Amino acid sequence: MNLIWEGGILFWVIVGLTVVAAAVFVDRLLRLRKIGIDPQDFLQGVFNVLDKGQTDEALAICDETPGPLPALVAEAIAHRDSDEAHLREILGATAHAELSRLERRAMLLSLFAQLLPLLGLIGTFVGGIAAVTALDAEAPLVRTGDLTSAVVGALATTAAGLIGAAFCYAAHHILVLKSDALSLDMDQGMALTLDYLERAEAREAEGQGDADVKA
Hints:
Elements: H1 2-5, H2 8-34, H3 39-51, H4 55-64, H5 68-78, H6 84-103, H7 107-138, H8 144-214
Helix pairs in contact: 2-7, 2-8, 3-4, 3-8, 4-5, 5-6, 5-8, 6-8, 7-8
């Protein structure tokens, strides 16, 4: 208990930042879990609806499904009449915006992972200065309790900073891995969607050509 109370203001600042980091991590983790879908099943369902000519229903499915991949597919469907270069540009911008939205708060973890050890180091220097001041003020009869209080405060901030930084590093790494998995799903989904739209356009052109021949 003394280790906690002797840490001083810096100790509680470090604890507060660690709590904020934990809240951000849990929030992002729940968000990533919520938007986690099976890309193959989702795309197959959308393509089946599009095969029936029900474009509005396909867009509704995308709007009702959370996550970056449905948003990407919705943009592809909405701009399916655009040329391929323009469509890829739109999808690239949408993918970038969706990933930025996912990573926005997670970057705080990276910041805290670098900041917390520095705060702990500052606490160590503050404790060292307090110890030297006590030695200078009470020399030659120095009370052990005064030195112990300063050293304990330095150890408390150092330990808190290192523990908080280790947590932030681990949490940020976990979120990055999950975001990378989503990014891979988006890349594969975009490729499959573009391929489907290209084949659908070819079938439509072929059907139109057959109709003209019959006419």
